[in-house]
Design a protein that fits this description.
single chain; 7-stranded parallel beta sheet; alpha/beta; two-stranded parallel sheet; globular
């Protein structure tokens, strides 16, 4: 059975790769981008199977209209993918108020608005799958990416609550948690705070972290399809071995710390 997708941030990276792959396998896609001309080649190749929609996800009203337009055009939505987002690089001290708000506006609120717009339509269908593009940075946090991590932790929290709220309507929910992929995430799409020279030694050390070859967005397609085609998809799915190994190690470390401090934790119980 073919699926109808709604994918934000379809001009590059994961959004572009997933849009192209879904169309190639015979699905239909409402693909959003700030500049829809980036999707012209897909329209030329796949015709009416792709619906380009201009969208800045920061605009709540525009996001709601985009979801409704896609639903009217195709008659249903099976998979709603909140992929639009960007990475903000800067230490906590360096990050300005405007930078912090912009990061949350896109990565958190943008996904929230699209999700809220989609829920009534999927509930009426009695089926659907909401896919949120999080990150291994939504499970742990890295120095120099604190606001990006905060936006993804917030996305993870509302999505975990959402999963319990909408399961009874036949709506499935999955958080995709990629590790480092060779996309534009750290390139032109990224934003950076004014550097404080006190943090330069830290930046120099971080520049040499994770120099192993990274998978491409196209490498993730098989895993994405496995999730959206599953009868019982996972709430969380890590993409790529580097992230998988790191997240398991982090959780083992957390468990060890909680056990070490168990006596102190239980000392807060009523006397």
């Amino acid at each position: 059975m073919s699926k109808t997708w709604f994918i934000t941030g379809a001009s590059r990276g994961f959004g572009r790769a997933w849009t192209a792959a879904a169309l190639e396998r015979g699905d239909r896609v409402a693909a959003t981008a700030r500049n829809t001309s980036t999707l012209d080649d897909l329209v030329d190749r796949y015709g009416d199977a792709v619906l380009p929609i201009g969208l800045d996800v920061d605009d709540r009203a525009a996001g709601t209209e985009a979801v409704q337009t896609a639903h009217r055009h195709f008659g249903r939505l099976d998979v709603v993918v909140n992929n639009a987002g960007f990475g903000h690089f800067g230490t906590i001290e360096e990050t300005t108020e405007n930078e912090a708000r912009a990061q949350m506006e896109t990565n958190f609120f943008g996904a929230l608005w699209i999700t809220q717009a989609a829920i009534p339509l999927l509930r009426e269908q009695g089926a659907g799958h909401i896919v949120q593009v999080s990150s291994i940075g939504g499970v742990t946090a890295f120095p120099g990416l604190g606001l990006y991590n905060a936006s993804k932790w917030a996305l993870e929290a509302f999505t975990e609550a959402l999963a319990g709220e909408v399961a009874g309507f036949g709506i499935k929910t999955t958080l995709i948690e990629p590790s480092g992929f060779d996309t534009d995430w750290a390139g032109a799409s990224a934003r950076r705070s004014e550097p404080n020279p006190r943090y330069q030694p830290f930046r120099d050390a971080m520049a040499n972290w994770g120099n192993s070859p990274s998978p491409t967005a196209e490498d993730s397609v098989e895993a994405l399809f496995a999730a959206v085609d599953a009868a019982e998809p996972p709430l969380r799915l890590i993409f790529a071995s580097q992230g998988y190994d790191l997240v398991l190690a982090i959780h083992e470390q957390r468990m060890a710390t909680w056990r070490e401090w168990e006596k102190t934790a239980r000392s807060a119980d009523p006397a």
